[in-house]
Specification:
Layout lengths: L18 E3 L14 E6 L1 E6 L5 E6 L4 E2 L5 E3 L6 E5 L1
Antiparallel strand pairs: 1-7, 2-5, 2-7, 3-4, 3-6
Length: 85
């Protein structure tokens, strides 16, 4: 398929180009730091940022979090999340 935008520079304001389902883990960082997180199924997400700060979010399905966490903790996370990058 032709992609006229293939050579465009990708940055945080451009659309995501890849995605993966997030598997929460208390001990491991995400394999790729996302540009945003899509909430596939609502619930709670416990996110850790680059400074080690952990915050719990109550989320509804369809929400998009414009945060770039390093880790999604398994303990306390019930939402199904998709990473966009």
């Amino acid at each position: 398929m032709s992609d006229p935008f293939d050579s465009d520079y990708v940055n945080l304001t451009s659309p995501a180009v890849s995605h993966f389902p997030i598997s929460p883990d208390d001990a491991a960082d995400l394999p790729v730091r996302p540009r945003a997180i899509f909430v596939n199924a609502g619930g709670t997400a416990v996110l850790q940022d680059k400074d080690g700060v952990v915050v719990s979010y109550d989320l509804t399905a369809g929400a998009v979090l414009s945060i770039r966490p390093l880790r999604v903790l398994d303990t306390g996370t019930t939402a199904q999340l998709i990473a966009w990058y």
